[in-house]
Amino acid sequence: MSDPKTLELLQRIAEALERRSPPPPAAPDLESAESYVWHAENEALQPVKRVNRVAIGLLQGIDRQRDILLDNTRRFADGLSANNALLWGARGMGKSSLVKSVHAEVNRLTRGRLALVEIHREDIPSLPKLLGLLRAQPKRALLFCDDLSFEAEDASYKSLKAVLEGGVEGRPENVLFYATSNRRHLISRQMIENERSTAINPGEAVEEKVSLSDRFGLWLGFHACDQDTYFAMVEGYAGAFGLDVPREQLHHEANEWSITRGARSGRVAWQYIQDLAGRTGKRIG
Fold first, then answer.
1. Any idea where the domains of the chain sit in the sequence?
2. Is-contact 93 11, C-beta < 8 A?
3. At what angle do helices 227-240 and 266-279 cross, to 10 degrees?
4. In a 3-state reduction of DSSP, which class is residue 88?
């Protein structure tokens, strides 16, 4: 190894490898925008110029959930204790819309104190890396995963459990985790039944799976709305966007629209409003 030619060759190889290696990711700057999307493949936070959300006052039929989540988020932004939150329940009832609207409202009240960072379901295994980056930030971050659930043979829920509460480092003090799901326990019924049928101790195996939800200190349930609430949603949207349609006609058309979709929900109300706006020549955001 003392041969000068050998040492020179090894040095050239090392330099070539360094040139081929990707540069380390730049430290995120949470002051450049109010919302970001995490890209696990290159370990980067992409700023979001325009967040797809509705004003918090337009969310109908979820007043209790709105007030609880708003209070929890405001306390976190103020540096006080707050809980991770799981918003679960019926499709289209405003779970993800509420998270984004609450973030906007808290930022309005606190002059931009809170960053919103979205992580996609498939990137959950990279969560420890993301938390490592956010831990070093002076700004508080609301970490958001939409439509979170786990199927059979998916072991990434274990890393989520450890990160939320049980790991050595735990969740950073400046990060709060919100997730939405159609399932209260985040695990498919088939997955739970498979555990019962194959485990030596079925009870313990199932507990291992469903205990993931226990890592969320705050559970907020969203249930299918009745007709009056559905009409209130439609009227709220129509009034906000200046769609001047007689109330009786609005209710009749909205009801027909819900029948064709086989459901009443905030999402169905919004889809009807989009159709109504298009027919009447109005542009809505």
1. 35-222, 227-279
2. no
3. 40
4. strand
Give the number of C-alpha atoms closer than 13 A to the C-alpha of residue 192, restricted to the C-beta side: 15
> In a 3-state reduction of DSSP, which class is residue 78?
coil
Long-range contacts of 91-94, Cβ-Cβ distance < 8 Å, separation of 24 or more: 91/182, 91/263, 91/265, 91/267, 92/263, 92/265, 92/266, 92/267, 92/268, 93/61, 93/62, 93/222, 93/223, 93/224, 93/225, 93/265, 93/266, 93/267, 94/59, 94/61, 94/62, 94/222, 94/266, 94/267
User: For the chain, what's the residue count?
Assistant: 285
pTM of structure: 0.82
Q: CA angle, 234 as apex, 66 and 257 as ends, to 5°?
A: 125
C-beta of residue 150 within 8 angstroms of C-beta of residue 124: no
Residue that has been written with the tokens 């020549």 in this structure: 281
Inter-axis angle of helices 202-210 and 189-198, to 10 degrees?
150
Strands 175-181 and 218-222: unpaired
Asked if 35 contacts 51 with a C-beta cutoff of 8 angstroms, the reply is yes
Q: How far is residue 207's CA from residue 214's CA, in Å, rounded to a whole number? A: 10
Question: Is it true that domain 35-222 has CATH number 3.30.420.40?
Answer: no
Between the alpha carbon of residue 92 and those of residues 88, 96, 104, 229, 265, the distances in Å are 11, 9, 20, 13, 6
- pLDDT tens digits, 96-136: 999 999 999 999 999 999 999 999 999 998 998 999 999 98
DSSP state of 166: I
